[in-house]
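Bench notes, afternoon.
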Amino acid sequence: MQKKISGALISVFYKDGLEPVVKTLQQLNIKIYSTGGTQKFIEDLNIKCEPVESLTTYPSILGGRVKTLHPAVFGGILGRRDVEQDIKEMNQYNIPEIDLVIVDLYPFEETVAQSASSLFNGENINVEKSIIEKIDIGGPSMVRAAAKNFKDVLVVAAKGDYQPLIELLKNQQGETSLEQRKQHAAKAFEVVMNYDIAISNYFNQSLFNPFHAKQPLRYGENPHQHATFYGDLKECFKQLNGKEISYNNLVDINAAVELINEFGASQNITFAIIKHTNVCGVAQRSSLKESWDAALAGDPESAFGGVLVTNATVDAVTASGINEIFFEVLIAPAFNEEALQILRSKKNRILLELKTQNSQVKAQYKSILNGTLGQDIDDGNFNEWKEVGGRITTQAEHDDLVFANIVCKHLKSNAIALIKNKQLIGKGCGQTSRIDALRQAIEKSRQFNFDLSGAVLASDAFFPFNDCVQLAHAAGIEAFIQPGGSVRDKDSIEYCVQNNLAMVITGMRHFRH
């Protein structure tokens, strides 16, 4: 069912890309209604535009919070053109038909990201106020109303749809089909859904939630740097012993918790050692003491002063072994009493009882330049399990490769992890070339007398050449896991095929900068 547009309501926050839209509407003699800054933008183009106030007879009030929330606006959007009573009431109250609604919502997520860095200056009240004022009310309401009445109204709720809208209007001389209106309605509901989820996440996100307290720290990464933690550590941990947690402790604790969350509950008993946010030792065994011994053996030198984490209850036997080395922090879901007595022998040693191993954090933020970067967490291990080598992996290799890929994910790029029997026996991280990361990993394994025969290798990104596979093979490694994606993937694959080596491509890169 074709429907010709007679009236359009435009209310957008960002004006970029809008000019050709309104010029097209002018060419088609479509009457334009608008609000505030959008109205001024249109009028500055010498295009006639009716202010929404001419419909509502009310000015924008309450600091701009109420502009379009009025029956004269929503009646024009929601009025059913095929319902006699609706048409009668629209005529009775002088409500014009609004057949096109163009709205982009207040930039809530952008404001949260931009405001995050302000929290570090203690501007909690101002930050919260600016974020709350970017919760759009009228915009989503108009979008939902127009989408609901798709039988008569076309809705555009994203800047990315401006150019297709222009083409549609020109090609069809201002007419739209029912199917086109329905497609736009589906997009609009998705926009509103994602917007509401972002707002919900903000209120549930402890990291930058202004309702949470700020906790001054002794100092930052170095003694001359001031530092503050914004959030509530008590939601995450119960501190059972030790000194005040420092900035560097918190950074390593976060890395340790991110890693241990990968391994779930204690049926897969895992122990890991973190140093400067990198895994320097990790192992899975049938008992906690065996896991600890194997993790420590992976790199006993780097373990000095590290942060320890496990997904199992710490017992006295394991505590006695841990007590023999110097470490900063130990994190576990529980400690038995005898273990606590042993570990509390050092008063400054930080013992943390992890309250949940299911992280609620779904986003990461980093302050850079004059703004803030935000991204989803790196969730998952692999997208696919594609065997491309000269043979299929054995069950033991399969299990070690799954384990290796997780470990590699928690090393700084460029990263290589060497695993044997679910024990980290060599790692290279933070290198400027992948071959250097591998050389470092092999050297580490040899330093502590590990036999690489039967070990597997994980790489956080693809192999740009086959040099890594050749070097690892020469050291005794016969199974590899990598994301793939290089234009020269075939070089490494062909080497594995020719030498009867196993290789798995995952389709999921795990860079960690």
